[in-house]
Amino acid sequence: MNNKSSLKYLKWVVFASLGFYNPMGLIDSKLQKLVMFILILWGLYKSTFKNNINIQTCYPKYAYFLIIIGICISTFMAAVFHDDQSPLISFQASLTYLLPYLLFYILMKFQVPVEQVEKFLIFMGIVGICVNFLNMLTAPHYLFGISKENADLSRGVVRVRTTIIYICFLFFYSIPKYQQLRSKKWLFLLILSYLFIILWVARQYILFATILGFFLYMKRLTFMKKIIFGIALWGASYVVVNEVPIISNLIQESYEQKEKNDEGDGDVRVQAYDFYCNEYQTNTVTRFLGNGIPSIGNSLWGDSYETIIRYRGTLAADIGWGGFYFYFGVFATLGLAIMFIKSIYINKKDRFKYLNYLLCLYFLTSFAGDTIISMEGITALMIFMYIIWAPNSSCLIRK
């Protein structure tokens, strides 16, 4: 497959993983999954049987192998240890996660040019900003996604739940670009992407993006400039915390949540981790090899699981790493953690070091988010890791 065709394929996969932003709520999850499955299966066929290129570069293949094998083994765990969920139903349920993780292999075989991938991700960041902006204007009747009866204004601004992943990419990519080129374009994109990270009103994203963005920006400054910039940022932070309603509302909400946790049974996410990692485990085998994916509406276990999580309010999507471990077990979780660590710590050229901070954001937010167990999140993660490990990439300093 030539470069143009492979890039076009990647574009289709990314938009499919997002449900094409679901205009007017017309694309349901089943149609989204069907399109995604067709694209990934076609990519697997082309990369395996119609592509003679061998992957000639070093990458964490054993860690990646653990992820794929762990997901496959967990399929059998679901069939063996859970009520009335056949191997076929278990396999179908696991495809939502397995196929996006296979995108890394497909991209490595297709060898999509890294520079073109980055340009496309910049475009996706801008598209994400536009989609979020339009949804904020039209809320609660969203142009993209499923409309709601009432807009959620609990955090001082309309909460829009369209993806922020590619906006975060644009934010971290823009920082070294602006420092290198001093271009107004990159300064504008840097400020705009950070503004929409704030407007997404997710506390962990605001916190980690701010801290990691600060360290990335400081990396290129002289010692004196670091001191001046640090003092200026501290002063600005004091003003923002006290004067900007969105930030002050988020801080107030955090205090109120802490008080509720102290008065009640503790933090909701801590309870969710205990539920998925301990209480709801079937036996010692599933603790190591995973439970698989409960197929809601297609098996007794799936229906029982739905009833329990509705009663308890404990969603796997709220605790990404805990949910990933519950689904796929120790070995897949270990494999993904190793891929993260190696991708972050491998020696890179300066132009690509923004990826370290982006992956750190991804790693940290996955403790209280669904980025490693959602279709769009997995797709984006595999693309980010491909940029680092691609055979044709100039990212790594190879010895």
UniProtKB/TrEMBL annotation:
Keywords: Membrane, Transmembrane, Transmembrane helix. It comes from Segatella copri. The chain crosses the membrane at residues 12-42, 62-81, 88-108, 120-144, 156-175, 187-215, 227-251, 324-345, 357-389. This is O-antigen ligase domain-containing protein.
